[in-house]
Amino acid sequence: MCDLGHPHQHHVFGYLVDAPEIRALIDETRRLTREIDDTAARVEAMKPAFARLLAADGWLPEAYGAPDHSSGMGSGIGQYALYRAEDGSLTLFSLVIPAGAETPVHDHLAWGLIGVYRGRQHETVYRRLDDGRDESRAELVVSRALTAETGDFYALLPPRDDIHLVKTVSDEPSVSIHLLANDTACVWRHRFHPASGEVKAFRSGYSNAPCPPEATTSTA
């Protein structure tokens, strides 16, 4: 397992948390990615392995389930890499949102699965009405809202449902697990302001690992 306080260069990719449950999920994801070309079918086939990780206890280090008040997401939100493919094709990370805090409205730009490991979250999903040609503006409407309990998870298949805001509605911080087909915290994504229509590029960064200095947006 990596040094939780001071990540070194050889620990910023691969298994930052080396647990059998994580290896089993990554191995299954790699196998299904090789064997299934259709993205929706691939993500559907990944669900049993992802559900097993969410149901397992003891594999997430305490430090990676705690808020981070210096993070690039703000509001004490911690984003901890658990596995990162060096080619940027896959990442597994935990996202910790303190009680009462919420993420900015943001996108992911990758297919994958997101599930609640601890606590309870309320998610607001947005849909774009514009064509996206103006990178600085977006017209958004709420397409749905839901509350996710511990163990609940959902698929991410951009552009559908890729823009959302997540708020912790439990008394303790919520921890969600993200398995996504890019190096999510290090690619240039978008932060949206629905009321004004403003869009800004941002990299959230990981709380436990550095980003390459010139990472570019994945087209996964």
Helix-strand blueprint:
Layout: E1 14-15, H1 20-35, H2 39-55, E2 78-84, E3 91-97, E4 105-106, E5 112-118, E6 121-128, E7 140-148, E8 153-156, E9 163-168, E10 174-180, E11 189-193, E12 198-202
Antiparallel strand pairs: 1-2, 2-3, 3-10, 4-11, 5-8, 5-10, 6-7, 6-9, 11-12
Helix pairs in contact: 1-2
Short description:
The chain is built from two helices and twelve strands.
Separate helix tally: 2
Number of separate structural domains: 1
CATH homologous superfamily placement:
Jelly Rolls
CATH 2nd-level architecture? Sandwich
Strand order of the largest sheet: 1-2-3-10-5-8
CATH class, named Mainly Beta
Q: Give unreliable regions as ranges.
A: 1-10, 215-220
Protein architecture, described:
The two termini are 29 Å apart. α1 packs antiparallel against α2. β11 and β12 form a beta hairpin. This protein is globular. The N terminus and C terminus are likely disordered. It has 220 residues and is an alpha+beta fold. It has one domain: Jelly Rolls (Sandwich), CATH 2.60.120.10. The strands form 3 sheets. It has a 6-stranded antiparallel sheet with strand order 1-2-3-10-5-8, with helices on one face. It is 15% helix and 31% strand.
Annotation keywords:
single chain; 220 residues; alpha+beta; Jelly Rolls; three-stranded antiparallel sheet; 2 helices; 15% helix; 31% strand; globular; disordered N terminus; disordered C terminus
